[in-house]
Amino acid sequence: MKQLSACATLLLLFACGTPHPKSTTNAFDASEEIIQLLVKDLPMEQLRKKREEALKLGTLLGGKNDWVDAVLVHNGKSKRAKIRLKGYLSDHWNDEREWSLKVKMAGKASVNGMNRFALQRPVTRGFMNEWIFHKFLAYNRLIALRYDFVHVSINGDLLPVYAIEENFHSNLIKRHGKPAGVLFKFNDDLYWRHKPGLASRFYGASITAYQAQKVKNNDVLRAQFKTIIANIEEFRNEKVKTHEIFDCKLMARFFVAVDIMGHHHATALDNIRFYFNPNTGLIEPIGYDNQLISDLSGQGLLGANKMINGHRAIDEWNFTNGYWYQHLFADTVFMKAYIQELKDISRKEHMDEFFSQTDDEYSEKLALIQQSYPEYEFTRKEALYQNQLYIRGELEKLNFDAEQNVVDVVGAYSKLVNKFGKFAVKDTTIQKYKIARALDEGYEDYNLALLDILGCIKGGELIVWLGKENHGLKHRKLTYKAISQRIMGSSLNVNGLPLNGNTKNYTRYIQTLKMLCETDDFEGQVAKVTWFDKYYQAIDSTDRSEIDQNRAFLLKYLSPYKALKASFKGTNSPAEAIVLVAQNIHKLAIEIKSLAINGQVIPLEKPQLLRGNIEGEPLTPVRFQVKVGAALIPILARVVNESQFELKQFEMNYSIYGTDRIITEPILQHN
What we know:
By secondary structure, the protein is of the alpha+beta class.
């Protein structure tokens, strides 16, 4: 095995005093690229202590003294730098020697044009998977990080081949030929400090600019950042649509590129990064940390299972908002762009050309990895083609021209079905309805209509199958038939709708719904919520009578769970509860209508739910929105038993409109 050069060794002695024990773990050609990090004893000890802290906590949390001084030697030149540990999760620092590091070069110094970058074991990003991901983004004319493989040594200790990953700096934007603009992310530190985290990290996360000091000191960049914050807040509060603040074509293309990978890690709020393009005034995506190439059929398309046109009735209890991009797909303009990109990028010729352009470089990188990991082989190429095939199959299910239109809110029809079974639906009771086009095998002319029935306190939803005859809507006999689990442009994740049987059973369900609508808010109906497996079986059964009617349960579809709604006596007043059942996992939720903060009772704009797990899910912060301003109020809640929650005092974060400031106050109690 080859040693470092004598010159480098002398530099080690000069920079570090006593060098650390050296062990060579892999051979490399002297002509190959190597990054040498020289760290003195005291800074090295700081890194070790930080790692020990992370091992105890189970996650790496940021601190004031994380960055330490180092000397970086590259291509025979020594450059000043600062380094720190990186990675929230232990795969970045659980090894005794091979730690993931962030590197920040001093001044205008750079390594291969990168002023800031990460060094980490290839396994943390799936070896070649991440390289393919970034190359695919670049091939599709999206902002892509430089991602490569390089030899690394720390104080003379030659490590196995590392991945080098470009970080977020103005150099990245210049390289893509774009005008200077703010790079930013959603800061979810609160999630990692109070894991398992915020029920809705999209609402709870603040916005953080990269190179913050530069942004602060530059009038143009500072104005851009204020615009970003104002636009995101408007978007979070559903006052603007996706296409008004995001570049829909580029965002859609990015989401499809992630779909092609079959793994959606890069779209998570704590992974995706953004660039504000001052020429367009729109936000563009930057891919980061996708890791895997998987079978897309397992997760399904990102654009499946979405409500559009901003209507979130099925999601009124806020359980599916953990995926921030639900908001993106609520805009028809974005959904159209997404479907068009699906059609373009899923072509086999598109993937063929990509590999044709990258094959030589791919072979070179694979050979470099195999110097340290000789048994590693990249085996996911065929998966990319299979994911394209899956997408083409999903597109074929759409009962409309992908180029022309997507699901949209349908204008008023003068005549609707007014009778179903023994239950009459009066025209005057139909508040609004939405057509979600889908292809039911053998029934291509069928549409799915969601009707909001007035009179139910919580706005019950009646789901019926309607066919098209002479451009009108007619009643059709209802029979159970399995349809696609994910319907493009719809919130439905079908397989067990409230309609899950013949006409007789459906009529029984509607009669139950009518009974509950006439009940005075269910008060006093249930004193205790207790669940057994038989109730889970009853939910999927076509015989609704198996559900105990005395408990006054209202079955309502809530993707991806089925929800049973009841109420029970609290310590001071009745409280409503939702029991969500999915795959035999029992969850409870308590509705909160107001909060008492520093002695002042603040009513919530909408009743919100705390939720937990009967099996003992850890404390979960939940975000509330009050009537006065936009208050982000995390509350920690844990299920004590079948009908009782334990609340823990936490803090309330007021997001100050137009700034990135957060004001914190304690929460004293809840109502």
